[in-house]
Amino acid sequence: MAASTLTPGPANAPAADTRWLAVCPAERLVPERGAAVLLPDGTQAAVFRTHDGALYAVDNRDPFSGAQVMARGIVGDRAGEPTVASPMHKQVFSLRTGACLDSPGTGLRVFEVSEAESTIRLAAPAPVGGGAAR
Amino acid sequence: MRELIVVGNGMVGHRLVEALRSRDTDDQWRITVLGAESRPAYDRVALSSRFDGAEEDDLLLPDLTAHGHVDLRLGAEAVGIDRENRTVTTADGAVLGYDALVLATGSEPFVPPVPGRDLTGCFVYRTLDDLDAIAAAAQGARAGIVVGGGLLGLEAANALRLLGLDTHVVELAPRLMPVQIDEGGGALLRRLVEDLGVNVHLGAGAAEITGAAGRVTGLRFAEGHPLGAIGADLVVFAAGVRPRDALARAAGLPVGPRGGVVVDSGCRTEDPAVYAVGECACLDGTVYGLVAPCNAMAEVAADRLLGGGATFPGADTATKLKLLGVDVASFGDAHGSTPGALDVVMNDAVGRTYAKLVVSDDAGTLLGGVLVGDASRYASLRPLVGRPLPGDPLELIAPAGAGLGPGDLPDDAQVCSCNAVTKGEITTAIDEHACTDVAAVKACTRAGTSCGSCVPMLKTLLSAAGVEQSTALCEHFSHTRAELWEIVAATGVRTFSELVAAHGTGRGCDICKPVVASILASQGNGHVLDGEQAALQDTNDHFLANIQRNGSYSVVPRIPGGEITPEKLMVIAEVARDFKLYTKITGGQRIDLFGARVDQLPHIWSRLVAAGFESGHAYGKALRTVKSCVGSTWCRYGVQDSVGLAVELELRYRGLRAPHKIKAGVSGCARECAEARSKDVGVIATEHGWNLYVGGNGGFRPRHAELLAADVDTATLVKLIDRFLMFYVRTADRLQRTAAWIEAMDGGLDHLRAVVVDDSLGIAAELEAAMARHIDNYADEWKGVLDDPEKLARFTSFVNAPDVPDPSISFSVLREQRVPTDPAQPVALGMPTTRSAP
């Protein structure tokens, strides 16, 4: 499968101080079933592979409920836009931009994600204070 | 700008301000509203929903102060009017000037002058505060009496019943709701109300409210009543209302013979600067108490204030209500007081419906009617009052009769009487505003926005106008759920990808995927987490547990019929203790264990499965529980083994995926301790066998199940439930409970009975066979996960740190158990080690 990277949304693009975090072996990421990733700064991301093989990563935190659950949402599309629905109250977010399609103005961070050497990697923001994870 | 003062912030005052604000486009008026209650305006008609779980906020009417030019003063009671200087004085001494004044002070409850009426424990039923006081007094009380068997009295009786009191209704007239319904309807209403356990005393006057130490002890009837007296801890007076007109009287404005400020057809009092609307006004010698005519007055006054010439259109006192779960409707000349009027009556004592039409002496014109037990014809009959009958009157009310189509209604017939919207206005709105659904019609015309009884007619009018109300499941499938079910059954498609490629578009969503998952599961497609199916499941089905507010899950092992050995109970207790799970008994007679992280679920379940437990499917749109009372095994009243049957039914239907959750109950005698009639499938023992009820539910709109078959033996009962459930699974819409499914069915319960009991479609054998396949193929879902390493691997919090628990899930302690940390409180975030993927 071809490596796939994505341009993150402009509002919350990871700055230069990111590092590529190995997430899991490529075969562990099953199409349309998300996986939660613990980031070095203690926040969480949700990584997805859509049906066409494209990779996406957004915040795992559902901004409406505050719970870390986005990876457990149902993946699909709205008019062709790849989406994930919050498992809490079903708000739908674009996987591409992180924007909430049901409530404009709310959204998820988006992370760059790549697949190479059979490994999924994610461009993680550095931990606060610059200290790497132990 | 001119100054308008509105005295009274009830529904009618609110309606007046709303009407004025929406039409006063040149900002002619600045409005000050004086409300004596401390609350914003609320929907008094829906007051009783407070006891069905409605919160105060649910009842509030829209806030109008956002429009600007509206100054709402709560807790500001008007105490005097100086008409000469055009000022209103409030209780706190403020003096406000006006150019126009509207009195919308409403009414106050009438408390008959019986001795003892001031004792502690006596209440009226008028405001939210009254209801809260009644609810507080009901704590620890045993019995309650409602004085008054009218509309409000029956609402109050239902409230007492819901509060768990032994309830009595005392009514002076020889029937309930004497103003609205006739003797025949009253007799049936009495039976239906008594069936609910309410004691009805008719033709009975109260001589005294008895008391001891200043508190209510009961009621003594007037001389000659066979009972003499009844005991009670509280008394609610609901014996009518009186116009609140003291302010107007003091200001020298004329009042009617039975009170109420006299107004002309423009709602203006003798003083041209003062209007009165609603229950405090007396128009043509009548004081109106129903919301529709009162709203009409508010509209008239608003129009007059803006220089219009509107006049009161005459009152429609038609009423349709659900009282104690019983449909009651009355419209037009319900008592046949028009000279020469003829009655056409259909009284079905078995089916428990009563319908009467009052027609003119030549049987050509509909004058009015009464419907009890089933008021579904109300929406089509009421608008025809005063008009030529479109057919044989008996045909219009006969159970299997043709009924009326929208074509029978003339354009000027009122479809929504609450908001005075005619059929013509609705059809015009559908055309001009291109309304495509009921919500759009409501927004354009206000029809259906108050009591909602005309909503079925709005749907019919939309269809008649050629508007296809979309039945598409979502943007990915143009089919209904039932159609998809048939496609899957007929084509043998077994994956979502094949189905959406061949019959839909795109890649699905959170609406269609769980629907397809459910359809596949109910047609026997292996474990719900097998292969691609896993990606279709809602998070609850995905983790076979119920997600909670902090992202943790709850666990519910199946306890068939609520019967459990002490040994198994101990296993649950030990698991809960070892994993520190918050433990609560559910309404369905089982035990819910809260606060499990995803990675703990397999550990919890390996212990539960080892002890013989299975998934309780609390997470699924599936059979939940079959609740039971203890039955004839122990109970001295029981006539059948309700626990045994409940266990048998729960084991038979466990794991059955459906359009929505399914609950069932079995009661061992007519006392109905299992509350079976609030379930989708309710079984009640009789001396000769079982009665089967279907279509009940609790929740947002509680509904009693209705009788499908009576006095059947166990084998027949099981066969009928097999057919009923499988028919529901196949044909209901997404998230449609059995109640709504039956309501929406052409022919309703009668059609359902024909299909399920009489096999009118010839599908009974097929339905039974499908259920037999489900029973044969059943396997415990949790055991399926524990036995499969691939499925087990999904149960980790983090794909890059499988051993790390989710640090965002934290707990505090409440009543000795762990509960989610209040999100408003700062959450302590741990900084656990992350590690690279292997």
UniProtKB/TrEMBL annotation, chain A:
The keyword Phosphoprotein is annotated on this UniProt entry: no
Gene Ontology molecular function: 2 iron, 2 sulfur cluster binding; metal ion binding; monooxygenase activity; nitrite reductase [NAD(P)H] activity; oxidoreductase activity, acting on paired donors, with incorporation or reduction of molecular oxygen
A UniProt-annotated Pfam family: Rieske_2
InterPro entries, A to Z: NirD, Rieske-like_NirD, Rieske_2Fe-2S, Rieske_2Fe-2S_sf
Superkingdom in the source lineage: Bacteria
Residue ranges of every copy of the Rieske domain listed in the record: 21-122
GO process annotations (BP): nitrate assimilation
Record flagged with keyword Lipoprotein: no
Keywords of the record: 2Fe-2S, Iron, Iron-sulfur, Metal-binding, Nitrate assimilation, Oxidoreductase
Protein name (Swiss-Prot/TrEMBL): Nitrite reductase (NADH) small subunit
Automatic annotation (TrEMBL), chain B:
Superkingdom: Bacteria
Cofactor binding, per record: Binds 1 [4Fe-4S] cluster per subunit. Binds 1 siroheme per subunit.
All residue ranges annotated as the Nitrite/Sulfite reductase ferredoxin-like domain in the record: 547-610
UniProt cross-references to Gene3D superfamilies, sorted A to Z: 3.30.390.30, BFD-like [2Fe-2S]-binding domain, FAD/NAD(P)-binding domain, Sulfite Reductase Hemoprotein, domain 1
Annotated PROSITE patterns: NIR_SIR
Residue ranges constituting the FAD/NAD(P)-binding domain according to the UniProt record: 3-285
Sections of the chain in a coiled coil: none
Domain BFD-like [2Fe-2S]-binding residue range list: 415-463
Boundaries of every Nitrite/sulphite reductase 4Fe-4S domain copy: 620-756
EC nos: 1.8.7.1
Known cofactor(s): [4Fe-4S] cluster; siroheme; [2Fe-2S] cluster; FAD
Catalytic reactions of this protein: hydrogen sulfide + 6 oxidized [2Fe-2S]-[ferredoxin] + 3 H2O = sulfite + 6 reduced [2Fe-2S]-[ferredoxin] + 7 H(+)
Database matches in InterPro entries: BFD-like_2Fe2S-bd_dom, BFD-like_2Fe2S-bd_dom_sf, FAD/NAD-bd_sf, FAD/NAD-binding_dom, FAD/NAD-linked_Rdtase_dimer_sf, NasD-like, NiRdtase/SiRdtase_haem-b_fer, Nit/Sulf_reduc_fer-like_dom_sf
Subunit structure: Homodimer which associates with NirD.
Family note: Belongs to the nitrite and sulfite reductase 4Fe-4S domain family.
Protein role: Catalyzes the reduction of sulfite to sulfide, a step in the biosynthesis of sulfur-containing amino acids and cofactors.
Protein name: assimilatory sulfite reductase (ferredoxin)
Organism of origin: Allonocardiopsis opalescens
